[in-house]
Amino acid sequence: MEKLLSTKATCDSHGQDSSYFLGWQEYEKNPYDEIMNPRGIIQMGLAENQLCFDLLEFWLSEHPDAAAFKQENASVFKEIALFQDYYGLPAFKKALAEFMSEIRGNRVRFDPNKLVLTAGATSANETLVFCLANPGEALLLPTPYYPGFDRDLKWRTGVEIIPIHCSSSNGFQITKTALEQAHRRARKRNLKVKGVLITNPSNPLGKTVSRSELDMLLRFISAKGIHLISDEIYAGTVFAPPAFVSIAEALMEFDDRDKVLNQIHIVYSLSKDLGVPGFRVGAIYSNNDLVVSAATKMSSFGLISSQTQHLLSAMLSDKKFTRNYIEENRKRLEERHNKLVMGLEKAGIGALESNAGLFCWVDMRHLLASNTFQGEIELWKKIVYEVGLNISPGSSCHCTEPGWFRICFANMSQETLTLSMQRLKAFAESIERTRICSKSTGKSKKMPLSKWLFRLSSCMHDLNVRVSCEHVE
Ligand SMILES: Cc1ncc(COP(=O)(O)O)c(C=O)c1O
């Protein structure tokens, strides 16, 4: 049957079988619900921002015309329904460019004419890669990286990803040595390196890329004559110092600015900052006219519907709303982040210090039965099936050290987050007790799962929930 299809359609470079996506599938089979399924799996592997829906819904209730195809009391339905220009609605591009500036404290200005609209950052990243590299050429990416990149950057373009290995020893910072090593590894494989792609703030690390890293990256791409893509989809989620520095800002003060101007490209989207991933709103920003022109032609394959552009141009043009939203969103994210970190601390689990994003990069190395990726996957399976939390193992993000996990905190209620931390605490304690027990008996005896599940359920008695026993073997 597969022979009837194309090689692209049937090859496995999409990455669908990564534990990142498998975790989502397991969650779908048994999703937690406070009333309907209190023993189900809690989704902590999805970087969704659900914390400010009340603000969006309030704005909609105050501005019914925007969603009802009306402007100054007249219908604009026909105009919107017929609009199919791939340059996008000028009013929307202007509002989006201004929103991008506002998120960066208006320290940089974005020209709407240099924006290409795309159906989310997924499409923006793929389109950019199509414009910058040929099949068989390479991009360098710092690890750990967003698992979707294997699909977005490689699958249809045929471009290779060469990891820049970052390590916990310096908080996963990108170093010049690691960059040079990645470049050499690519050359050894006879791959022509066309660029470096970073996420700033980083997914999955949940922290901003420092000014010194950005300067070093600019010097590197200038020396090599290659591109730098900065995926800044989490720009509006920075809730604590150090402040976010966009590559656009670092570029303004870079000595060789004119030399690299055409090699710098920014990817953006409203999926995280505004919390509307279903609207599929993304963009490429580039000073390179050729890239803007080629990407605009390609954007025909993934345009944003004119209906969405119309609605969001009204919302983002409302400066009072955007100012308040940006501030409140940061405040709520910080509260959530702190709650997760405190919950982890109570469970004896640490996390990389972070200041942005919708997740933490969590250190569970001490819970591994063996310091291997096999050990990591075994631990992950226990956490998914027995503890009932879908989190993302570091190996799905191409981390080189086993035992790190990405845990999301903005896609659930406070109560669900509390419950998830109680489940995790009971689990971590059960592992600890097993170790003490096997040390004192001198045997490595496995604690029966029923025992820690018993303890877990009693610890949750207050919340009137019990953990799932459905998948326990
Ligand atoms: C770093 C990064 N880039 C791109 C995307 C895709 O975003 P979008 O929903 O806008 O396609 C994500 C989604 O999680 C992401 O984390």
Explain this structure.
It is a single chain. With 473 residues, this protein is of the alpha/beta class. The protein folds into 2 domains: 2-48 and 358-463, Aspartate Aminotransferase, domain 1 (Alpha-Beta Complex), CATH 3.90.1150.10; 64-321, Aspartate Aminotransferase, domain 2 (3-Layer(aba) Sandwich). It is 44% helix and 12% strand. It is built from 18 helices and 15 strands. It has helices at 7-10, 19-29, 53-62, 64-67, 77-82, 90-103, 120-132, 149-155, 176-188, 211-224, 247-252, 257-260, 289-298, 306-317, 319-346, 373-387, 414-441, 449-459, and strands spanning 42-43, 70-71, 74-75, 115-118, 138-142, 160-164, 193-199, 227-231, 264-269, 282-286, 350-351, 359-363, 389-390, 392-393, 404-408. The strands form 4 sheets. It has a 7-stranded mixed sheet, with helices on both faces. It has a 4-stranded antiparallel sheet with strand order 11-12-15-14. Helix 6 (90-103) packs across helix 14 (306-317) and helix 15 (319-346) runs parallel beside helix 17 (414-441). It is globular, with a radius of gyration of 23 Å. 45% of the residues are buried. Mean pLDDT is 91; it is low at 445-473. The site of pyridoxal-5'-phosphate has 14 residues, from helix 7. Belongs to the class-I pyridoxal-phosphate-dependent aminotransferase family. Its EC number is 4.4.1.14. Pfam families: Aminotran_1_2 (PF00155). It catalyses: S-adenosyl-L-methionine = 1-aminocyclopropane-1-carboxylate + S-methyl-5'-thioadenosine + H(+). Keywords: Ethylene biosynthesis, Fruit ripening, Lyase, Pyridoxal phosphate, S-adenosyl-L-methionine.
